[in-house]
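User: My collaborator and I are trying to settle a disagreement about how two of our proteins should look. Neither of us wants to argue from intuition anymore, so we agreed to look at predicted structures for both before our next call. Could you fold the first one, then the second, and keep them clearly separated?

Assistant: That sounds like a sensible way to settle it. I'll keep them separate. The first protein:
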Amino acid sequence: MIMPDKKNQKVTVPILLEMKSKGEKITALTAYDFPTAKILDAAGVDVILVGDSLGMVVLGYDNTIPVTMEDMIHHTKAVARGTRRALIVGDMPYFSYHVSEAESVRNASRFLKEAGAHAVKIEGASRPRLNLVRALVEAEIPVMGHIGLTPQSILHLGQFKVRGKELEEAKRIMKEAQNLERAGVFSVILECVPLELARIITDKLNIPTIGIGAGPDCDGQILVFHDLVGYLDTYMPKFVKKYANLYESLIQTVHTYSEEVKSGGFPDDRYSYHFKSDQNLEVLLKSKPSKE
């Protein structure tokens, strides 16, 4: 097996900033459990995001709003146990950073202290968000920003759609990116924005941009792992490239297993154990125990 270069080098925030300065692309994917994290880490993925998208992908919710801090801590712990190289980012779920600055910092610290993450991600760039970023950085908690389409705002936005297609909104997103950098984030996700806007933002920032539906000019790319491998048969946005179709493959695999069980083909002798004695076990079980 050909393994990626630098596979043993632990990815840190300074390394990501160095990759930006050298023009090296950053790879990022989501993971929500131990086996997926092991796969991504072994494949050389630089950043693993334990996204609140787990609410839709793993827990079956219609959106990310119901995801709790306990959900996120639980899944981040599992990912951390399967990761050695990648930088792990824990996604702050809805209403875990909205009530007060003190509570928000406390929730963010749990990702590092309890769950084994190396950074947290928060959505938005309003004035309260910028103040929170500064507070988190002051508490030595690395922060990844997230602007453009922000899924936690779905009830306000009404639908998932591209942001920044009109000039005024593009200007706002550009300003948000610059404000987040000044506040101290080490990188920023640009979700569902025109590639022209993403290119300009990437050129102007000294921190890495990570695109999802933001074109090829970002410093890195991120996708939901389950989308990448075709794990589900649900709707896929335009920006998703399916590199496999595990859904159909897994259905066929389970169908084959079921047919073999029903026909008696599985398990056969190859998948069975044997009594250690050459004597007939049935006879031995029927015999009376000897008296001492």
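The second protein, kept apart from the first:
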Amino acid sequence: MIDRRGYDNIEIPGNLDEVVQGAIAEGMARRRRNRTATLFKRAGSIAAVLFLCAVTALNLSPAFAAAACEIPVVGDWCRVFLFREYHVEDELKYIDSRIPQIENTGNTELEDRVNLEIQKVVRDCQAAGEERAKEYYDAFVETGGDPKDFIPLGITIDYETKYISPECVSFVVSQRETRFAAYNCDLYYNIDLESGRVITLRDWFGPDYRQIVAERIEAAIAGWSEKQRSLLWEDLSVIDLISEDTDFYLNQDGQIVVVFEKYEAACGAAGNLEFMIQPAES
């Protein structure tokens, strides 16, 4: 393992915390508690497989989404996830956005709340990126750069559906910038469609969730090569990284995948670390 002190002393842009924390704060309130661990049922039938195939096509094709909504029976499910996309470009920046939206869940309050939160997060991230592009352009010109040689800042806002069923949905909204990687961020949404509540690790694994999750992560790390383990922080305490706010998503099999962001558990070369957590033994 390596000494993390050099990374701890890296100078971070002054408003980084404000931008990232603001985006997270505007995300869903993931501190909601006391949800039982029996929220979902894994789909194993042919109908479930066909449904997941339809959802994949929905997210890849707006035309398919529009047509599917008119089909009886499956229309109610196919409108759970839609997206809209746009491209904006000028001499300072170019922006590509794909924005998710939940619909037809049977819970209008949930839909309004989640969709408004996503729109605000995207709007805030985009505005902050545009401001950085302007500041970077001004600095470029003021230091003698030819405006014609300025390369616009690229901002990409996208999403990925990780898991979807009649009971729950899991997806990630991400922001990426071509020049300022420190501002890249991912927002994880795991929503119980029946109650409209955000799912936490406590909901899934029960009151001993921190110990359960930490033990499984430590077991996974034990199977790593020495080179992989050398990237981890020397003073890493896995259980201290586990809380009800810990990022995770559900994979295509409905299993929990815990995510540690870059620099959270290891040096930058490790990138984001993901650990699939097997259910607790009964």
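Some points you might bring to the call about the second protein. The domain at 5-277 is CATH 3.30.565.40 (Heat Shock Protein 90). Confidence is low (pLDDT under 50) at residues 2-8, 10-56, 58-80.
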